[in-house]
TrEMBL record:
Cellular localization per UniProt: Membrane
Organism this protein belongs to: Crotalaria pallida (Smooth rattlebox)
Designated name of the protein: Protein kinase domain-containing protein
SMART domains given in the database record: S_TKc
One GO cellular component, as annotated: membrane
GO molecular function: ATP binding; protein serine/threonine kinase activity
Length: 302
């Protein structure tokens, strides 16, 4: 299928991803998991959760291998790779792959619809717990698809809270309640927080956490955004070419700030997020100023 793993598409903590082709000429991405993943719990978690899904904004699992120590997942091939290579200004590839404002907006809506489906459209609720640009894949038409369900939790339809022994996710996107119960209970609102942080990165073209900055600087970008919103100042963001773009970016900023509210009860549901993104900007209220901070990297939560 992969011609002896001839063409590598990417590498992550889990292992490598390779391009392949099925007998019917369909292109696939084969995720080969490292043997070091313990008893294969993360692998089985991904198969169990994603096999329950069928949605245009969720990547399709076509098959898997669970033979001896071999663990592999076979996904539909996404020709444009992950979202992260299109949004960060520090990435040299971004210059050549600039997405316009409308494309970024449609990507945000697509991810929101995918999350809404996971939270309330499946037979079971699925909480992803690792929403970030790296885990959003883009097809040839830049239609976004949520991928990487290794950290996902499957819950019954009537279950809204999640019990969690250890924090899961990636620093910069983890909701406060996931690393400290003092902020509230872990629920679908934890994915809402991660989505909000991701949208802020889409709008601003930079990571919320930069490895080279100290802890106090981590809050800079959301704070800067909120201050301009408060003062009704121009965001001076890239990709803005006309008044429509300006309104679209403003709407995405307001929605993202609602999503990253510290108190989970102040965050909208993903259903409400979709409504807000598709509605008129002037109908949106400015959210309260969130406590803009993130867990220390020393906690090694990734």
């Amino acid at each position: 299928m992969t011609n002896s793993f001839a063409e590598k598409l990417g590498q992550g903590g889990y292992g490598g991803v390779f391009k392949g082709k099925l007998h019917d000429e369909r292109l696939v991405a084969v995720k080969l998991l490292n043997k070091s993943k313990g008893n294969g719990e993360e692998f089985m978690n991904e198969v169990a959760s994603i096999s329950r899904t069928s949605h245009i904004n969720i990547v399709t699992l076509l098959g898997f291998c669970f033979e001896g120590s071999k663990r592999a997942l076979v996904y539909e091939y996404m020709s444009n790779g992950s979202l992260e290579k299109f949004i960060y200004e520090t990435n040299p590839m971004t210059v050549d792959n600039q997405l316009n404002c409308e494309q970024l907006y449609q990507i945000a809506i697509g991810v929101a619809r995918g999350l809404e489906y996971l939270h309330r459209g499946c037979n079971t609720r699925i909480y992803h717990f690792d929403i970030k640009p790296h885990n959003i894949l883009l097809d040839e038409n830049f239609c976004p698809k949520i991928s990487d369900f290794g950290l996902a939790k499957i819950c019954s339809r009537d279950e809204s809270m999640v019990s969690m022994l250890i924090a899961r996710g990636t620093p910069g996107y983890i909701a406060p309640e996931v690393f400290s119960r003092n902020f509230g209970v872990v629920s679908h609102k934890s994915d809402v927080y991660s989505f909000g942080m991701m949208v802020m990165e889409i709008v601003g073209g930079r990571k919320n956490i930069e490895v080279e900055v100290d802890g106090t600087s981590e809050i800079y970008f959301p704070y800067w955004i909120y201050k301009r919103l408060e003062l009704n100042e121009d965001f001076e963001l890239r990709n803005i070419t006309n008044e429509n773009d300006r309104e679209t970016m403003r709407k995405m900023v307001i929605v993202s700030l609602w999503c990253i509210q510290t108190d989970p009860s102040n965050r909208p549901t993903m259903h409400r997020v979709v409504d807000m993104l598709e509605g008129r900007t002037e109908a949106l209220q400015i959210p309260p100023k969130p406590f803009l901070s993130s867990p220390s990297r020393s906690e090694n939560l990734s």
